[in-house]
Amino acid sequence: MKALILSGGRGTRLRPLTHTIAKQLVPVANQPILGYVMDHVQAAGMGDVGVVVAPETQGEVRGYLGDGGKWGVNLTYILQEQPLGLAHAVKTAKDFLGDAPFVMYLGDNLLGKGIAGAIERFASSSMDALVFLKQVDDPRAFGVAELDGSGSIVRLVEKPKDPPSDLALVGVYLFSPKIHRAIDSIEPSWRGELEITDAIQWLIDHGGRVSGEVLDCWWLDTGKKDDFLQANLTVLDDYLKRDIRGELVDSQVHGRVRLEDGARIVNSVVRGPVAIGRDAEIRDSFIGPYTSIGHGSRIVGSSVEHSVILDRCEVIGISRLEDSLIGRDSRVVMGGARNTALRLMIGDHCQIEV
Hints:
- By secondary structure, this protein is an alpha/beta fold.
- It has helices at 33-43, 58-65, 86-92, 94-97, 116-123, 178-185, 196-205, 225-239, and strands at residues 2-7, 27-28, 31-32, 48-53, 74-79, 102-106, 109-111, 129-135, 143-147, 153-158, 167-175, 210-214, 219-221, 243-244, 247-249, 252-254, 257-259, 264-266, 269-271, 274-276, 281-283, 286-287, 291-293, 298-300, 303-305, 308-309, 314-316, 321-322, 325-326, 331-333, 345-346, 351-353.
- Helices cover 20% and strands 33% of the residues.
- The strands form seven sheets. It has a seven-stranded mixed sheet with strand order 5-4-1-6-11-8-12, with helices on both faces. A seven-stranded parallel sheet has the order 14-17-20-23-26-29-31. A seven-stranded parallel sheet has the order 15-18-21-24-27-30-32, with no helix packed on it.
């Protein structure tokens, strides 16, 4: 079985941040989302991995993943010139996939558990597709599956006004080679895209066996700022362990804090869970729970909580920064005496004075 990871798309819901960084590379707890996907692929024992990339962001994706050696896999990069749908991405990858069964994993999704168990069940069955599903509060915002009593999917509906269930498609799919015939048989949707839901529905309508895998763990779609903050909170809660490798000077560190090599905390208080990247500096500040601070960033004379601050940023003299996502190489500095909370989302290479 092969793996196909989708790392294209324009990430329009996260602009301006995604004007300069692929959304799959935005870090959660200081690791790019794509890294968590690769961890799951590695844990499932998959050695042959294709990565679908977009022209605008392929350089960054290639720079991060390299040849796949970090995860012990062989990587093949597949260029999708236009984001014309998930089924179009599969069609673009046909030469790589051949006649092998495969798992398709959207590179901007985070799951609370791996995919090894589902792959084993799929490999030992006669299923044509296995689709990951998750119960959600408002299924109208997602593709939705309707199951029969045996767990087989009988119908898929894209963003329905009247949902047939509360089971949303998560973004992980396992397919037999029959999916290629299905994709060749469908037409573009009203959006001008080849929809994977239409291809799966074609399999169902033509006698294919399509089952649902209902997740009993968390799932996070990191499409918007608040999604990223929730993802950061969840990952810090579930995975972070106390690991102090940097330097502490006249400071207090409470709870689960990861302080990477070269980082310094001076005359400050840090209350976990918090992840602080390598060569970062925290001085005369308070860092509160559910915060990630990127590599080489500086926080001076400030209070930061429940925020994601990317690499090489500066936050100086801010009395309270919360619920914020700060892009790389940005500066947030206090220009006058104010004592109110800030709520920010800014792109890369910005300077904000408040």
